[in-house]
Amino acid sequence: MSVEGDAKKGAGLFKTRCAQCHNVEKGGKHGQGPNLHGIFGRKSGQAEGYSYTAANKNAGVTWDEKSLFDYLENPKKYIPGTKMAFAGFKKPKDRADVVAYLKESCQ
Questions:
Q1: How far is the CA of 3 from the CAs of 36, 65, 74, 100, in angstroms?
Q2: Dihedral angle at the C-alpha atoms of 91, 92, 97, 100, nearest 10 degrees?
Q3: What gap in Å lies between CA 47 and CA 93, rounded to an integer?
Q4: What is the pLDDT of residue 107?
Q5: CB–CB of 102/34 below 8 Å?
Q6: Residues 6+ apart with CB under 8 A from 47
Q7: What's the rounded Cα separation, in Å, for the pair 7 and 100?
Q8: Which residues sit opposite 62 in a β-bridge?
Q9: How do the pLDDT tens digits run along the chain, 107 residues long?
Q10: What is the 3-state secondary structure (H, E, C) of 13-82?
Q11: Cα Rg, the chain, nearest whole Å
């Protein structure tokens, strides 16, 4: 990941593009998508209490800055069979900003 992220800009992008399905609150409920708190270092398909597709459970991805940056470009291409409907952030800067926000908010 060669682009520097801005967590403040990422917060705005998360609110408008991600928050309808995900939240980042510690102990928060899952929505249409899983709660993302604690995602860094967690394997794909492993948030407790969320019903994942087999594709997510079996992908074997450990979430870190690089894997999230790559995933957020095109989730369905990164994990074929995922039920995540989001098409992705095409701009590297937008992805870096969202990853910076998640890093700040989900640990």
A1: 22, 11, 17, 10
A2: 150
A3: 27
A4: 83
A5: no
A6: 30, 34, 35, 38, 39
A7: 5
A8: 43
A9: 567 899 999 999 999 999 999 999 999 999 999 999 999 999 999 999 999 999 999 999 999 999 999 999 999 999 999 999 899 999 999 999 999 999 999 98
A10: HHHHHCCCCCCCCCCCCCCCCCCCCCCCCCECCCCCCCCCCHHHHHCCCECCHHHHHHHCCCHHHHCCCC
A11: 13
Nearest to 13 by CA among 107, 88, 77: 88
Residues recorded for the chain: 107
Q: Give the tokens for residue 95.
A: 């992805």
* CA dist., res. 16 & res. 49, Å (int): 25
- The token duo for 78 is 């990164």
By three-state DSSP, how is residue 93 classified?
Answer: helix
Per the structure block, which two tokens stand in for 18? 């991600």
